[in-house]
Design a protein that fits this description.
Layout: H1 16-27, H2 30-42, H3 46-74, H4 78-89, H5 97-128, H6 137-149, H7 151-170, H8 173-200, H9 205-213, H10 222-236, H11 242-247, H12 256-284, H13 295-305, H14 310-344, H15 348-369, H16 383-410, H17 413-420, H18 425-450
Helix pairs in contact: 1-8, 1-12, 1-14, 2-10, 2-12, 3-4, 3-9, 3-10, 3-12, 3-16, 3-18, 4-5, 5-7, 5-14, 5-15, 5-16, 6-13, 7-8, 7-14, 7-15, 8-12, 8-14, 9-12, 10-16, 10-18, 13-14, 14-15, 16-18
The protein binds 4-fluoro-L-phenylalanine.
The site of 4-fluoro-L-phenylalanine has 16 residues, from helix 1, helix 2, helix 5, helix 10 and helix 14.
């Protein structure tokens, strides 16, 4: 059988839109709503946003095309896809590292992602219970500090989040994933628009927009550029095989280029909308934009606590975040689960159970880095910060470079052309130049710059 006619043993998306919804669901998550605003706040706002958008457009879209392309050609889990493609291109086995490192990165990311997903769950209940009614910034900050200071609470919510995720994963691609995204994605967009609507009424919308969109380059450093690039990879779910595995379910006649552009625009749109919803509230209440991972949990409840209908808006907001976190966490563990199924011939349920337990255990390290291990530093970073740095700022960009190089140099132009279905020769040449030269060089420059070599 011709390799390009292969089908994934795990099924196929029922239409292009299901794929776009699923991939957007994987891309849009805590990264957009929790991480993008706090990184933006920590890195001084607009210049960070600008670099982020450039990274999405110049690196993210071409690399996403490359990753979907590899997935659709290999039609398997990242690890097996890379094996098939290494055989097809007759290159060294070393390239399989793309699949291994991606699968590992997914599990590492999910281990802390689930902890933050647990915070979200907890905050739904806090909001519903009216905890924040009339709250001041001091109150929400101390509520957050008490909450993350309790290893037991974080343990409980992390466990619940992980359980729910694994139940959906165990349902399989056609059942669990498709049904989940079709129902969850529209809800997400609707709730976010509602929040932006509220922010417009605070009187600080202009200030928020200025913070996000009037570039102040004095705030830009090597390490903030690395964060912006890492965040682009993280937010688009690139460089670790998630998009590859989603790509492996893509029907043959789908345009990879158009699809990638739609997914990247939707993802960036959600991040910017989240920023537009959050920063006006931050400024209206005199809160601190650079307060770190707790930003949305410390700041938003003040706003919710002092607005009419705040209990409803607050609860809705955290439900929104939970929805976004679920669809992403499903995709973070999917490469590992399908690899276990393919390799050991075990059932999806067992594979989900084993991967879930391993990831859950690793999550304990993140939990403790907010309390028991708060003073334990590796290279000046807590366990959580280190895990995040290694995955977002190193593993994903490096994985992305390898994917770009593989698609650009090792696969034949004939094959990449036929998979991408770009009919315009100039566009194809531009894509090839991006993955062959521009993306790898740009990623290296940012990395070297951040470690102080350039
Ligand atoms: N893109 C997701 C987010 O922004 O929350 C996180 C993520 C999901 C990263 C899947 C990587 C991944 F493979």
């Amino acid at each position: 059988m011709n390799i390009s006619d292969r089908q994934s043993m795990h099924g196929q998306w029922s239409s292009r839109w299901t794929f776009i919804l699923a991939a957007t669901g994987a891309a849009v998550g805590l990264g957009n709503i929790w991480k993008f605003p706090y990184l933006t706040g920590q890195n001084g706002g607009s210049a960070f946003v600008l670099i982020y958008i450039i990274c999405v457009a110049a690196l993210g879209i071409p690399l996403m095309m490359a990753e979907i392309l590899l997935g659709r050609r290999g039609r398997s889990t990242p690890i097996h896809t890379m094996k098939v493609l290494v055989e097809e291109t007759n290159t060294t086995q070393w390239w399989q590292i793309i699949g291994w490192s991606g699968t590992l990165a997914g599990m590492l990311i999910l281990s802390y992602y689930s902890v933050i997903g647990g915070w979200t769950l907890a905050y739904i209940f806090k909001s519903l219970a009216g905890t924040f009614s009339g709250a001041t910034g001091e109150f929400t900050a101390s509520t957050f500090a008490t909450f993350v200071g309790s290893a037991t609470s974080l343990f409980f919510w992390h466990t619940v989040f992980m359980l729910i995720t694994m139940v959906i994963v165990a349902g399989g691609v056609q059942g669990g994933l498709e049904k989940a995204v079709q129902f969850l994605m529209p809800t997400l967009f609707f709730l976010l628009l509602l929040m932006v609507g509220y922010s417009m009424s605070t009187g600080y919308f202009g200030k928020g927009m200025e913070f996000l969109f009037t570039p102040d380059f004095s705030k830009l450093t090597g390490s903030s550029m690395l964060s912006a690039m890492g965040q682009a990879f993280f937010s688009l779910s690139l460089g670790m095989g998630t998009i590859m595995i989603y790509g492996s379910y893509v029907p043959k006649d789908t345009s990879i280029a158009n699809t990638s552009i739609i997914i990247a625009m939707a993802d960036t749109g959600v991040a910017l909308l989240a920023g537009m919803a959050i920063f006006p509230i931050v400024f209206a209440n005199n809160l601190e934009p650079g307060s770190g991972p707790g930003l949305i949990f410390q700041t938003l409840p003040v706003a919710f606590g002092n607005m009419t209908g705040g209990i409803i808006f607050g609860s809705l907001f955290f439900i929104l975040l939970l929805v976004a976190a679920w669809t992403s966490s499903i995709s973070l563990i999917e490469p590992l689960v399908t690899w276990l199924i393919e390799t050991f011939g075990i059932s999806r349920i067992k594979a989900s159970l084993y991967s879930g337990i391993a990831t859950w255990m690793l999550g304990l390290g993140t939990i403790w880095s907010f309390n028991l291990w708060a003073d334990l530093k590796f290279f000046g970073l807590t366990f959580f910060d280190l895990l995040d740095f290694i995955t977002s700022n190193l593993m994903l960009p490096l994985g992305g470079i390898l994917i770009a190089l593989f698609a650009g140099w090792l696969m034949s132009s004939e094959n990449t052309k036929s998979e991408l279905r770009i009919t315009n020769p100039a566009l194809y040449t531009a894509w090839q130049a991006l993955v062959r030269y521009i993306a790898p060089i740009a990623v290296f420059i940012v990395l070297l710059n951040a470690i102080g070599i350039l």
